[in-house]
Amino acid sequence: MKIADMNWMQLESYLQQDDRVVVPLGSVEQHAYLSLAVDMILAEKVAVDAAEPLGIPVYPAIPFGVTPYFAAFPGTVSLRVETYVRVIHDLLDSLARSGFKRIVLVNGHGGNQPAASAATEWMLSNPGVKVRFYNWWNAPHTLANVRSVDPTSSHASWMENLPWTRLADAPCPDARKAPIDYQRFHVMNAAQAKEYLGDGNFGGWYQRPAEVENAMWQVAVEETRAILQGPWE
Amino acid sequence: MKIADMNWMQLESYLQQDDRVVVPLGSVEQHAYLSLAVDMILAEKVAVDAAEPLGIPVYPAIPFGVTPYFAAFPGTVSLRVETYVRVIHDLLDSLARSGFKRIVLVNGHGGNQPAASAATEWMLSNPGVKVRFYNWWNAPHTLANVRSVDPTSSHASWMENLPWTRLADAPCPDARKAPIDYQRFHVMNAAQAKEYLGDGNFGGWYQRPAEVENAMWQVAVEETRAILQGPWE
Amino acid sequence: MKIADMNWMQLESYLQQDDRVVVPLGSVEQHAYLSLAVDMILAEKVAVDAAEPLGIPVYPAIPFGVTPYFAAFPGTVSLRVETYVRVIHDLLDSLARSGFKRIVLVNGHGGNQPAASAATEWMLSNPGVKVRFYNWWNAPHTLANVRSVDPTSSHASWMENLPWTRLADAPCPDARKAPIDYQRFHVMNAAQAKEYLGDGNFGGWYQRPAEVENAMWQVAVEETRAILQGPWE
Amino acid sequence: MKIADMNWMQLESYLQQDDRVVVPLGSVEQHAYLSLAVDMILAEKVAVDAAEPLGIPVYPAIPFGVTPYFAAFPGTVSLRVETYVRVIHDLLDSLARSGFKRIVLVNGHGGNQPAASAATEWMLSNPGVKVRFYNWWNAPHTLANVRSVDPTSSHASWMENLPWTRLADAPCPDARKAPIDYQRFHVMNAAQAKEYLGDGNFGGWYQRPAEVENAMWQVAVEETRAILQGPWE
Amino acid sequence: MKIADMNWMQLESYLQQDDRVVVPLGSVEQHAYLSLAVDMILAEKVAVDAAEPLGIPVYPAIPFGVTPYFAAFPGTVSLRVETYVRVIHDLLDSLARSGFKRIVLVNGHGGNQPAASAATEWMLSNPGVKVRFYNWWNAPHTLANVRSVDPTSSHASWMENLPWTRLADAPCPDARKAPIDYQRFHVMNAAQAKEYLGDGNFGGWYQRPAEVENAMWQVAVEETRAILQGPWE
Amino acid sequence: MKIADMNWMQLESYLQQDDRVVVPLGSVEQHAYLSLAVDMILAEKVAVDAAEPLGIPVYPAIPFGVTPYFAAFPGTVSLRVETYVRVIHDLLDSLARSGFKRIVLVNGHGGNQPAASAATEWMLSNPGVKVRFYNWWNAPHTLANVRSVDPTSSHASWMENLPWTRLADAPCPDARKAPIDYQRFHVMNAAQAKEYLGDGNFGGWYQRPAEVENAMWQVAVEETRAILQGPWE
User: Fold this and answer.
1) Which GO terms describe its biological process (chains A, B, C, D, E, F) (predicted)?
2) pLDDT digits (tens, 9 = 90+) for B114-170
């Protein structure tokens, strides 16, 4: 259930019977032909779909994350690591104050990894609260499904090209892009990266048939749901 | 137009003909019987409605703001001032890097006022970019309209009770609440504030007829649109 | 009573009978023909005058505040918002450690508003201490008095031209300046602002007769004193 | 000349002929029987007296410094080192923006030493501006004079007991206190330090005759003045 | 070559012919029966061995990293993420100032991952300098070698039990520990983690024969050396 | 005993009988003909030699300190004051968590003085733990010994030219350098400082006979050892 569809009194009731909550972590950044908000949209969608049958509330996604390497692509918003860590700390402080004791951060963007470190260090001063940082897109089953379709699938390829992220007026090529060279990419500055990446896809098919998409999404939702269920000890 | 409905290439095209952009600033916090996300929903909605005919892109709202006084109400998320200022700085740095030169922060929450200070100090080191911080809810025409309906209208009253923020399963009272005493409220700690505020409404009618709502919203959208148009010098 | 006129033993005695204290917040910045320290001088003076008959100690004013928009005027000192918030937090920590439980920040400069947010968030972790942030210059009675004399009075006009802030060798014009356009001013960078503002007065009479000044000051002192008296719950 | 006695236009004129400026650094903290503001008062007074014949402007003292070891004495205000460093950086940024190129920080409190480090690191990114951090009370000639009177003179002894810092209603003992043991003091926590220090004097005569005071002050003013004169290369 | 074996004049000469440099990143934390400084020792050793034939200078390792999950084991030192990011930024600023243009951070501890993010965001403001963050222990060839010996090898197992990290007076068991459950470990607080981990080994053989150790180390050194050689574009 | 020669179980045993620990503070910076790591090497060596007979564990030195004035000499790494203060705070938090109650920071570099302030302010929130900041090189007996050999000895002179810091391939001159003018040095920017300092020695004999070195070191080790022994109250 979305927090946006609840008021504080309803949440107060919920907290008398459960103490789990989900916050999706997004990013607004280049995703080739797809929406600039892919990571935000998918993190929120997978979280809501996973939480629905469990009745666990889901906060609106934090739209912005850490993505300096895409800074030269128009529209990209990148928070500095320090800023991001503080956002995570303040968020967790607030959730703990509300009475949540088991918190899942469903992350949609690789660059947001410092949130995992932030959550771990926050738990050191909040030993009574559990925080799980969870990358929905590279969890074992989801990743296995993606690779079974196309082992080179990556950023902005078909695995992120879903009904909620593609744009009516910006069709993706019916093609398969060769994977980028990560070793080279990692030492490029922002301008070099923009030139090197071209449209921004990191490799793999730009699109796959609807049934392939659906199967992947189904795995992702179920794997995320399992995380919400535990283990919590 | 929502940024979420654009890809980076489309935004690159836009930037060749215009350099304006909007970022809504929200808050997730108690709003009595209404959605916990009222300030986020309305800031984003008024921004999108205002920007639509001008073709100016609108980022997803930053959901969380500064709201320590509501900390005792479950669901409230409050960023510390330092954190919030950093988020604003990083956001503006990113937008300037993309090539935006005229940025409007459409704010939906009074506690987010430090973003105005953050924007002004940011302009000191970025003299070529203009940032306007804009509170849609207390702009002169909108405020006049609200007060003409009910001079005591405030937080969580009818002026925020709109089709996009009310909850099907949580009807608002058909009543008018007496205004709170702000002098007392401002020195209360979070626990005292929760007790004092009761349901959380700060005063005024909980609901008004649809035509009153619509008229208010119309004024707000037009006043916000005028801000996007200028002056910018 | 000024803290500067007390030693720690005297303050220790005071704390056995009262727990109120005042800290004035100033700014060193352009004030047209008047002293660069207007905001510091008046905040401290109104605080001392108000506190005198109540026997409440008053700290020396913090001279510097947040005023980036005046950065192009020589002499202006502006602290960044983050810095200022930290100063306020450290100050409040220190006062609470001394045993003060009711603290009034008497503020003389509009740009210092983030101190109000800082104080509120500080109270969240210090629920046993009350902090009131108080703008002496726009409190209701004082503002009403000022507007009754000249509705356009503003920064560096007669309302700040008092015996303690005017300079013997820099007489003010006997004139009334047209108000500035705030919408334009708020998106100007520092250099544009300096050019636009001319001498720096924001509008209104540069000077008024002594009896008008005195009457205004009397209202301000009494209104500030009332704040020191409460309510504190 | 005090900045408080100048307006921005006068300062603009000054900057066409000189680029030196002084900022006194104080502390509000226990000084035994003397004013809680000793370090602020003396730093500002010695700076103003030294600068007077040279026509160099002097800012109001920053009242608060770094003094955690006196935290248990009522009235003490201590900024954290990080806060203080930021204040110094922002101050220097502001002064450089005004056009000052030779800045003297006249410091009145030993605990403010991190300001020296802050100034040095600031110069690394501002190679065209010189900042001298100057402890007026332990400069060679002043210290020699103080020690010639009483080699054990220290915090809150006669060397700080001057017409501007003593309190009419709090006479100092006509006695000489044995010096404290610094090795022990440095590992005491705040509560232990308060108990150990008694009235707060660190050792030496509480008072000396007026001519001794005057002679010391004369040395201090002249030594400070020499610093303002250079060398600056 | 170790920086500790050079003076500034020798480094100045080096910089006229090459612009590469290495900084090892360590951690002081529990490593079961092995030295508390394993991560520091191995990062520095692999860096020095790799750099030797290339003549590239190697800084002393930063001993402390980010390791909050081991906080309950005596001896563990953990920097907060914010602190660590600042250390990395300051380090890179310093190296760039010296004239280095290709910098390798050879990391010995998984928790230090935020340094990778810090390096990437630093490159955004320093587009002329390349920084490669390199985990020597999970680079492809090294990891393949480790897994070929024992697929469950992990923290504090044989792969870190080398002549430079084992202690004469603390022999390791001749045994193979079952791997821990990472899902459970990641939501444990520090006290629970200490209890759960027992001696601290995460799984795998505690020791392997010298020739197995040597072969692994050889792979690691060569793979690290290859990184120093490029690609750098 | 070096922490690097202990595992966590051994340290846990130690903590049942003693609660003292040492952390050396170094700097990597120009030292004329000597190793760039002089301050790190000597702080660690004097700490280890002093602690040895007492059985007190010694952490690896923090290699980097605060040294902006040497920034123009290749190889120098300087942390900003804020960064350094955070490192010290995090370190002390970690040591306190391990159970250490008496901590000595053996400092080898004058620029690291803010660590003393950081330690003192840390004790304010950790009143049960004692931290002594100790400059081994200007402690009374050591300094007296150094000055008895050569009163002008300073940075990079014979007092730092020891078997562990000199380089086989970089012989020091057999000469005595005239002392620098500190007043001038302190207002120089980094480029001016590099030019002014020449080889980097601040004055005094570059080298002294082995027996002079040994005698000095003996005094330093014993004086440091006495500090470890107390007083601690």
Assistant:
1) riboflavin biosynthetic process
2) 999 999 999 999 999 999 999 999 999 999 999 999 999 999 999 999 999 999 999
Structure tokens at A87: 């956002």
- 199-218 in F: which are within 8 Å (CB) of D? none
CATH code (residue E122): 3.40.50.10310
| Whole-number Å distance between alpha carbons of F175 and F165 | 18
Angle at E197 between CA E195 and CA E201, to 5 degrees: 150
Q: Is E175 on the interface with A (CB under 8 A)?
A: no
D147 vs F: CB within 8 A: no
pLDDT classification of F163: cutoffs 50, 70, 90:
very high
Taking residue F128's Cβ as centre, other Cβ atoms within 10 Å add up to 8
D131 touches chain F (CB under 8 A): yes
| DSSP sequence for chain E | -BGGG--HHHHHHHTTT--EEEEEE------TTS-TTHHHHHHHHHHHHHHGGGT--BPPPB--B--GGGTTSTT--B--HHHHHHHHHHHHHHHHHHT--EEEEEE--GGGTHHHHHHHHHHHH-TT-EEEEEEGGGSHHHHHHHHHH-TT--TTSGGG--TTT--TTSPPPSSEEPPP-HHHHHT--HHHHHHHHTTS--SEES---HHHHHHHHHHHHHHHHHHHH----
Cβ-defined contact of B28 to A3 (cutoff 8 Å): yes
The residue-averaged pLDDT of A31-53 equals 98
C197 interfaces chain B, CB cutoff of 8 Å? no
**CA nearest B185 in C: which residue?**
C233
Give the number of domains in chain D: 1
Task: Give the pairing of strands E130-135 and E102-107.
Answer: parallel
Average pLDDT over residues C84-96: 98
Residues E185, E186, E191, E197, Cα dihedral to 10°: 30
The reply to whether F141 touches chain D by the CB within 8 Å rule is no
Nearest to E190 among A68, A86, A127 (CB): A127
Half-sphere exposure of D10 (CA within 13 A, CB side): 22
Residue A127 at interface with chain E, using a CB cutoff of 8 Å: yes
CA atoms within 13 A on the CB side of E40: 25
Check: CB of residue D81 under 8 Å from CB of residue D114. yes
Residues of the domain holding D122: 3-229
d(CA F10, CA E33): 9
Mutate to test the interface with D, among F83, F102, F189 (most CBs of D within 10 A): F189
Structure tokens at F179: 């002392």
Q: Which residue of chain D comes nearest to C28, CA vs CA?
A: D4
CB B16, CB A41: distance < 8 Å: no
* Model pLDDT, residue F79: 98
Say which residues have a Cβ less than 8 Å from residue A220's Cβ, sequence separation at least 6. Answer: A46, A136, A137, A139, A142, A145
Pairwise CA distance, residues D1 & E119, whole Å: 48
Cα B24 versus chain centre, distance: 6
Judge whether F124 is closer than 8 Å to chain D, CB to CB.
Answer: yes
Interface contact flag, F94 E73, Cβ < 8 Å: no
The whole-angstrom separation of Cα A103 and Cα A95 is: 8
Interface predicted TM-score (ipTM) over 0.95: yes
Chain-chain contact of B186 with C132 (C-beta, under 8 angstroms): yes
